[in-house]
Design goal:
The structure is a single chain. The protein is mostly beta strands. The chain has one helix and eleven strands, in the order βββαββββββββ. The chain has one helix spanning 41-47; strands spanning 14-18, 25-29, 34-38, 52-58, 62-64, 70-75, 78-82, 89-94, 100-104, 118-120, 136-137. Bound molecules: zinc ion (2 copies). One zinc ion (ZN) binds at residues 38, 40, 42-43, 121. One zinc ion is lined by residues 38, 40, 42-43, 121.
Length: 150
Protein backbone atom coordinates (compact mmCIF):
# COMPACT_ATOMS: atom_id res chain seq x y z
CA UNK A 1 0.00 0.00 0.00
CA UNK A 2 2.54 2.59 1.10
CA UNK A 3 5.82 3.20 -0.60
CA UNK A 4 9.13 2.96 1.19
CA UNK A 5 9.36 6.66 1.90
CA UNK A 6 6.19 6.33 3.93
CA UNK A 7 7.82 4.07 6.47
CA UNK A 8 8.51 6.18 9.47
CA UNK A 9 9.69 4.07 12.40
CA UNK A 10 13.30 2.99 12.56
CA UNK A 11 13.81 -0.65 11.73
CA UNK A 12 13.99 -2.52 15.01
CA UNK A 13 12.10 0.18 16.89
CA UNK A 14 9.89 -1.09 19.68
CA UNK A 15 6.50 0.53 20.12
CA UNK A 16 4.37 -0.17 23.16
CA UNK A 17 0.84 0.70 24.00
CA UNK A 18 -2.30 -0.42 25.72
CA UNK A 19 -5.85 0.21 26.74
CA UNK A 20 -7.19 2.92 28.99
CA UNK A 21 -7.25 0.79 32.18
CA UNK A 22 -3.84 -0.72 31.50
CA UNK A 23 -4.90 -4.38 31.51
CA UNK A 24 -4.26 -5.04 27.81
CA UNK A 25 -0.78 -4.16 26.61
CA UNK A 26 0.95 -4.75 23.29
CA UNK A 27 4.37 -4.44 21.75
CA UNK A 28 4.94 -3.85 18.05
CA UNK A 29 8.38 -4.20 16.53
CA UNK A 30 9.85 -3.34 13.17
CA UNK A 31 8.56 -0.91 10.61
CA UNK A 32 4.85 -0.45 10.07
CA UNK A 33 3.75 -1.30 6.54
CA UNK A 34 1.70 1.90 6.50
CA UNK A 35 0.16 4.47 8.84
CA UNK A 36 -3.19 5.94 7.80
CA UNK A 37 -6.35 7.64 8.94
CA UNK A 38 -9.51 5.61 8.22
CA UNK A 39 -12.82 7.42 7.80
CA UNK A 40 -14.93 4.35 7.02
CA UNK A 41 -18.30 4.02 8.73
CA UNK A 42 -17.37 0.63 10.18
CA UNK A 43 -14.27 1.92 11.98
CA UNK A 44 -16.17 5.01 13.04
CA UNK A 45 -18.77 2.90 14.79
CA UNK A 46 -16.24 0.47 16.25
CA UNK A 47 -14.16 3.30 17.73
CA UNK A 48 -17.04 5.71 18.49
CA UNK A 49 -14.84 8.41 16.98
CA UNK A 50 -15.21 10.46 13.76
CA UNK A 51 -12.21 8.64 12.26
CA UNK A 52 -9.33 6.59 13.57
CA UNK A 53 -5.67 6.13 12.81
CA UNK A 54 -4.04 2.78 12.21
CA UNK A 55 -0.54 1.42 11.84
CA UNK A 56 -0.24 -1.92 10.07
CA UNK A 57 2.29 -4.45 11.27
CA UNK A 58 3.08 -8.01 10.24
CA UNK A 59 1.16 -10.12 12.74
CA UNK A 60 4.36 -11.85 13.86
CA UNK A 61 5.65 -8.44 14.99
CA UNK A 62 2.77 -7.70 17.36
CA UNK A 63 2.66 -9.34 20.81
CA UNK A 64 0.00 -8.99 23.49
CA UNK A 65 1.97 -8.50 26.70
CA UNK A 66 -0.76 -7.97 29.31
CA UNK A 67 -4.24 -9.42 29.63
CA UNK A 68 -5.42 -11.04 26.43
CA UNK A 69 -7.79 -8.81 24.49
CA UNK A 70 -11.29 -10.05 23.78
CA UNK A 71 -12.27 -10.44 20.13
CA UNK A 72 -15.37 -9.67 18.14
CA UNK A 73 -16.18 -10.49 14.52
CA UNK A 74 -17.53 -7.18 13.22
CA UNK A 75 -18.13 -8.88 9.86
CA UNK A 76 -17.49 -12.44 8.60
CA UNK A 77 -13.95 -11.46 7.58
CA UNK A 78 -13.02 -8.92 10.27
CA UNK A 79 -11.83 -9.47 13.84
CA UNK A 80 -11.64 -6.54 16.19
CA UNK A 81 -9.96 -6.90 19.58
CA UNK A 82 -10.68 -4.79 22.63
CA UNK A 83 -10.17 -4.68 26.40
CA UNK A 84 -13.01 -6.50 28.09
CA UNK A 85 -12.58 -4.36 31.22
CA UNK A 86 -12.50 -0.81 29.85
CA UNK A 87 -13.68 -1.37 26.27
CA UNK A 88 -10.79 0.35 24.51
CA UNK A 89 -10.46 -0.88 20.88
CA UNK A 90 -7.10 -2.60 20.46
CA UNK A 91 -6.72 -3.97 16.95
CA UNK A 92 -8.25 -4.73 13.56
CA UNK A 93 -7.53 -7.86 11.56
CA UNK A 94 -9.16 -8.88 8.28
CA UNK A 95 -8.96 -11.61 5.65
CA UNK A 96 -8.46 -8.73 3.23
CA UNK A 97 -5.22 -7.81 5.01
CA UNK A 98 -4.07 -11.35 5.81
CA UNK A 99 -1.06 -11.67 8.08
CA UNK A 100 -1.35 -8.10 9.35
CA UNK A 101 -2.50 -6.57 12.61
CA UNK A 102 -3.66 -2.97 12.50
CA UNK A 103 -3.09 -1.24 15.80
CA UNK A 104 -4.49 2.12 16.83
CA UNK A 105 -1.80 4.79 16.80
CA UNK A 106 -3.71 6.62 19.55
CA UNK A 107 -3.28 3.57 21.83
CA UNK A 108 0.51 3.87 21.72
CA UNK A 109 2.27 5.18 24.81
CA UNK A 110 3.89 7.64 22.40
CA UNK A 111 1.33 8.34 19.67
CA UNK A 112 3.75 10.76 18.04
CA UNK A 113 6.19 7.95 17.32
CA UNK A 114 4.34 7.33 14.03
CA UNK A 115 3.23 9.82 11.40
CA UNK A 116 0.05 9.16 9.38
CA UNK A 117 0.69 9.39 5.64
CA UNK A 118 -2.78 9.31 4.07
CA UNK A 119 -6.53 9.39 4.51
CA UNK A 120 -8.50 6.27 3.52
CA UNK A 121 -12.24 5.90 2.87
CA UNK A 122 -12.84 9.63 2.55
CA UNK A 123 -16.02 8.55 0.77
CA UNK A 124 -17.36 8.12 4.32
CA UNK A 125 -15.70 11.20 5.86
CA UNK A 126 -18.03 13.26 8.04
CA UNK A 127 -18.86 16.68 6.65
CA UNK A 128 -17.73 18.44 9.82
CA UNK A 129 -14.26 16.93 9.78
CA UNK A 130 -11.91 19.37 8.03
CA UNK A 131 -8.31 18.46 7.48
CA UNK A 132 -5.59 20.65 6.09
CA UNK A 133 -2.64 18.33 6.55
CA UNK A 134 -1.60 17.94 2.92
CA UNK A 135 -1.86 14.15 3.10
CA UNK A 136 -3.06 12.08 0.17
CA UNK A 137 -6.73 11.22 0.24
CA UNK A 138 -8.33 8.09 -1.22
CA UNK A 139 -11.98 7.23 -1.85
CA UNK A 140 -11.14 3.87 -0.28
CA UNK A 141 -7.57 2.62 -0.10
CA UNK A 142 -4.30 3.50 -1.78
CA UNK A 143 -4.61 0.25 -3.72
CA UNK A 144 -7.06 2.04 -6.01
CA UNK A 145 -4.24 4.16 -7.45
CA UNK A 146 -3.98 7.92 -7.75
CA UNK A 147 -5.12 9.93 -4.75
CA UNK A 148 -8.06 12.31 -4.99
CA UNK A 149 -7.25 15.88 -5.98
CA UNK A 150 -7.02 18.28 -3.05
ZN1 LIG B 1 -8.60 -1.88 29.63
ZN1 LIG C 1 -12.03 1.68 8.43
Amino acid sequence: MAANEDLVAEDGAILEGGCQCGAVRFRATGKPKWVAHCHCADCRRASAAPFTTYASFDAVNVAWTGAAPKSYASSPTVTRRFCETCGTPMSYESDGWAGEVHIFVAALDDPEALQPRLHAYVVDQLSWIHTDDGLRRYHQTAAEGDPLPG
